[in-house]
Design goal:
Length: 420
């Protein structure tokens, strides 16, 4: 379908300059749109811009010092900019967080994106202006305490702020009265502050076991608490290897004297509790007058995890919270750019809402969760189907097989996959 990109050009605000924001800017520019990227930090990278932190810090990044990506590097690359090893840098297949940050810097430099980014700019309000259906965006210069405020009008807004910055905490009896140290992995950076302590790590997904295996080298004891009735397979070998590493079921009660009581009947007197319990969706700047609703674990309604049906000029990149590959972010960005230019059409608002309801209905009918590899395989197939809506190339079969094989190897060999 032929189209005139100049006649269809929109003035678009992209909130955030992490992977989602950078690829959104690139795709919007390719499609002929005018782009402004607003980034609250002094540099690009989003989560991958490492920030020092402590228990009282307010930071965006949740990356700890020793963190390495938990998927092979080919999983983290964009379609036309390979994440290949660079001589003199971290060449491992599962590189450290700084290598991914440098990859994003290289990407921005290659496609000359930095000139479109306003750094140190905090977005404080995004609201729909009726009846024009344009978006009012208010921002603040963070470089001074009395930073200058700015108000601008945009045709569309792309929210690309990520969702791994606002800690989610479980509700546990006694936790509000507990006087000892409690913190979330969001502000964990290095193990040394836990020297000679008895530490309870809550959460058995990804960050919990990784941090626990780091703490065993400095702590007196490390206790991992998970929801599993039986010890998770990936923790069997580590628990057997370290005499002072213990596994328990979820916490039932926290006592003022420091005792932590677990559902399996065991207990321990702890110095610290470290919650590795995930994150909440939070977009405090959004004022959509009911177009979008946000709670801790859900944002919607969103058509294909991307568009607000009642106002498709508001879109999101990177909302899925499990294994959203960089190529999926890229296909989302491309689809948004094409919809805004008129090159692609969305269904009517009613039909988008019906599609969302059908997805929810099918989810409720699903059988119990499958293993992680099966879930990821299905996600990769979904990403291909999504890409068909904007002529985004399918992931090659060999690449899918390689990704799944390496992920499975990492899951089954939890302690050793980082050495690859």
């Amino acid at each position: 379908m032929a189209f005139d990109s100049l006649q269809s050009s929109k003035h678009v605000c992209v909130v955030g300059a992490g992977p989602s924001g950078l690829i959104s800017a690139r795709e919007l520019l390719k499609e002929g749109h005018s782009v402004v990227v607003l980034e609250q930090n002094h540099d690009l990278g989003g989560q991958w811009l490492y920030q020092d932190a402590d228990a009282t810090a307010t930071v965006h990044s949740s990356v700890f010092a020793s963190l390495r990506i938990n998927a092979p590097r080919m999983y983290m690359e964009f379609s036309d900019f390979m994440f290949t090893p660079v001589e003199g840098r971290d060449t491992r297949n599962y590189p450290g967080h700084r290598e991914l940050f440098l990859y994003l810097k290289d990407f921005a430099r290659c496609f000359e994106l930095t000139e479109f980014i306003r750094f140190n700019t905090e977005v404080i309000h995004v609201g729909l202006a009726t009846p024009t259906q344009k978006w009012i965006v208010r921002s603040r210069d963070r470089r001074t305490d009395d930073g200058q405020f700015m108000e601008e009008i945009f045709d569309a807004v792309v929210v690309a702020t990520g969702h791994y910055s606002v800690p989610w905490l479980p509700k546990i009896k006694g936790m509000e009265e507990w006087k000892r140290k409690q913190l979330h992995s969001h502000v964990y950076r290095v193990p040394e502050p836990f020297q000679d302590e008895v530490v309870v790590v809550v959460g058995g997904s990804i960050s919990g076991p990784e941090i626990a295996l780091e703490l065993v080298h400095v702590a007196k004891e490390v206790h991992i608490s998970t929801k599993n009735v039986e010890i998770p397979e990936k923790l069997v070998k580590p628990v057997a290897k370290y005499e002072h590493l213990h596994w328990h079921q979820e916490i039932e009660l926290i006592c003022e004297d420091g005792t932590v009581v677990f559902a399996d009947g065991s207990s321990v007197v702890a110095d610290s509790i470290l919650y590795c319990t995930g994150y909440s969706y939070s977009f405090p700047f959004l004022d959509t007058k009911g177009i979008i609703h946000v709670d801790e674990k859900k944002i919607g309604p969103l058509y294909e995890y991307t568009f607000a049906p009642l106002s498709p000029s508001l879109s999101f990149v990177g909302i899925p919270n499990m294994f959203a590959t960089c190529r999926f972010l890229e296909s989302q960005a491309r689809r948004i750019a094409q919809v805004l230019s008129g090159k692609r059409k969305l269904p009517s608002a009613d039909n988008m809402m019906k599609a969302i309801e059908e997805v929810q209905r099918l989810k409720e009918l699903e059988e119990p969760p499958k293993n992680v590899i099966q879930v990821i395989a299905e996600l990769l197939e979904y990403y291909d189907r999504y890409g068909d809506q904007c002529d985004f190339p399918h992931l090659e079969d060999w690449r899918k097989e390689n990704i799944l094989r390496q992920l499975e190897n990492g899951i089954n060999n939890f302690e050793t996959f980082r050495d690859e």
